[in-house]
Amino acid sequence: MNETAQLAKAAILAGKVGTLATIDFETFGPFASLVNYSCFNKGFPVFLLSRLARHTKNVLADCRASFLVAELPPTGDALTGLRATITGDVEMITPDAVIKAFLAKHPYAEAYVGFGDFAFYLLVPKTVHVVGGFGRIESFMADAIF
Fold first, then answer.
1. Most buried of 1, 59, 73, 128 (most Cβ within 10 A)?
2. What is the three-state SS of 29-87?
3. All domains of the chain in start order, with CATH
4. What pLDDT digit, counting tens, does each position of 3-48 carry?
């Protein structure tokens, strides 16, 4: 794994929140929302989503999505930090497989994890586009990172 891929994977594994971009079920245009996540398997992002949320309605209508994870620098221009955009398909996953890891990163989610409208969803990556700082831009097939 090259250095940029290693940095991207470390950022994905360390993160807790990112931007989920889906295809809107009504307008068929882009729709982005901030979501909490944890990682499963080789680092695949897992989300706890409510069926009442627009992004969930979107992935149920069209599973294609992208997910942006960013490492913001402590000071200065946010665009100098590492960003990784993962593209792939979102699918429902059984809670047994992911609940412990998700609650370890998001213990407050225990208050609503059992609500009937919430379920866990896994982003199965296809590609990862990484901006690792100025002039350091690479795209990878998912298996080069996960």
1. 128
2. CEEEEEEECEEECCCEEEEEEECCCHHHHHHHHCCEEEEEEECCCCCCCHHHCCEEEEE
3. 3-144 (2.30.110.10)
4. 899 999 999 999 999 999 999 999 999 999 999 999 998 999 999 9
